[in-house]
Amino acid sequence: MLTMREKKALTAEIQNRYSKASKKAKSGILDEFTTNTGYNRNYSTRILRLKTGKVIGYTRMGGKKIKYVIGKKNRKKYRKPRVYTYDVFLALKKIWVVFDFICSKRLAPFMAEAVEKLEKHKEIDLIGDVREKLVKISASTIDRLLKPEKDKFRLGKGRSGTKPGTLLKNQIPIRTFADWDDKRPGFTEVDLVGHDGGDNSGDFMQSLNFVDIATCWDETAACRNKAQKHVFRAIKIVSARFPFEIAGIDSDNGAEFINDIMIRYCVKNEINFTRSRPYRKNDSCFVEQKNYSVVRRAVGYLRHDTEEELGLLNELYLYLGRYNNFFIPVTKLVLKKRIGSKVTKKYDKARTPFRRVLESEHIDDKIKARLEREYDSLNPVKLKKNIAGLQEKLLKLNVLKNKVRKESTINAEAYGYISG
């Protein structure tokens, strides 16, 4: 039995002779051809009449469907030369890591500024046309190049620890997500992120997260627990870090915010104090999003409950504030349209909170000049290294703390068993 390749070669050889033969001679050629190939007579007649190079059908070889072409020679596939070479991938990966693994939609418009900043501080050395390719790279190309790397990073989920504050609610007006249409910087949302590590017994650290609605400027501070005095102290610390004055604070309904201390503080400083509706997280969507992208991504889900950890957390948030506000671009939702069951969303161009502050007409030029001087002095790679160093200290401290507690528990149980 002939192989498919041999059948194709025989078809090409006999085809020319068959087309020039007489009717009587064609009958003999067909007898010979069907005997050699095993084809039936009708099929043999059809393929011998076809012109050289024409597709006559498909056949399966090795589980793959391939074309059966008469007299066509196999040609090498032309492959377009790769534009984004391995050098571009390495440079892109480094930039992506330095700027906290942000998505391509935020990284692509920020790429030119990122490259310029890293070259200024001699943190990256781009060879040949790599720089030009990085500046022009699209978001979809970034996704394709970084897909294998993105699959390596996974984080878990946390849980809410808000307990309602029933007192004084009637003195604090409700403000919903739909009411947030402030173009003026200074109107903020605030929330607490608990670091209980899955065990909510006893005291554990809380991270107070402040985010400005207009500019997305974010500041965070840690406090010992959810007691009003500790939370209020953290609020004053965070408010002092903002480059502009706080004009409004919107919180959830937790007792750590809904209290007399906060009301008197806001009245004294002429701050508009509002609260969200109970069990409606979308009313505080700006800060809820930052709880993950800022606090959880930096600190994780371990339990932190010692004074040493409190100091490390607050030191970490000092570096993290500069890093996120000056070097991590964010997008804002500008349009949301629903047509039936389909929801279409449109976002603005990704910009860092620092750039949004510079674009605001409500902020004094002196504040902008001070921020520009601070921006020029900052090196994102050094900030990233400082953050990573503090994260490592927190992790080691947590491991050591848990080891000591476990040994203490085992010793106590052993002592109790022996003494009994």
At CATH level 2, the architecture of the largest domain is 2-Layer Sandwich
> Tell me, what is the CATH class of the largest domain?
Alpha Beta
Tally of helical runs: 14
User: What is the topology, as strand order, of the major beta sheet?
Assistant: 5-4-3-6-7
Oligomer: single chain
Give the helix proportion (percent range). Answer: 40-55%
Q: State the fourth-level CATH superfamily of the largest domain.
A: Ribonuclease H-like superfamily/Ribonuclease H
Summarize the helix and strand pattern as letters: HHHEEHHHHEEEHEHEHHEEHHH
Rounded to an integer, what's the Rg over CA atoms? 34 Å
Q: Main beta sheet, described?
A: 5 strands, mixed
Low-pLDDT ranges: 163-170
Shape: elongated
Question: Taking all residues together, what is the mean pLDDT?
Answer: 84
Number of strands: 9
**Structural class by SSE content:** alpha/beta
Task: Describe the protein's topology.
Blueprint: H1 4-20, H2 23-37, H3 41-49, E1 55-61, E2 64-69, H4 86-98, H5 104-120, H6 130-136, H7 139-150, E3 187-194, E4 206-212, E5 218-223, H8 228-241, E6 248-251, H9 260-268, E7 272-275, H10 285-299, H11 307-327, E8 333-339, E9 342-347, H12 353-359, H13 365-377, H14 380-419
Parallel strand pairs: 3-6, 6-7
Antiparallel strand pairs: 1-2, 3-4, 4-5, 8-9
Helix pairs in contact: 1-2, 4-6, 5-6, 5-7, 11-14
What does this structure look like?
There is one protein chain. With 420 residues, the protein is α/β, with parallel strands linked by helices. The chain folds into three domains: 66 residues, no CATH class; 65 residues, no CATH class; 235 residues, Nucleotidyltransferase, domain 5. The protein is built from 14 helices and nine strands. The strands form three sheets. A five-stranded mixed sheet has the order 5-4-3-6-7, sandwiched between helices. The protein is elongated. About 2% of the residues have low confidence.
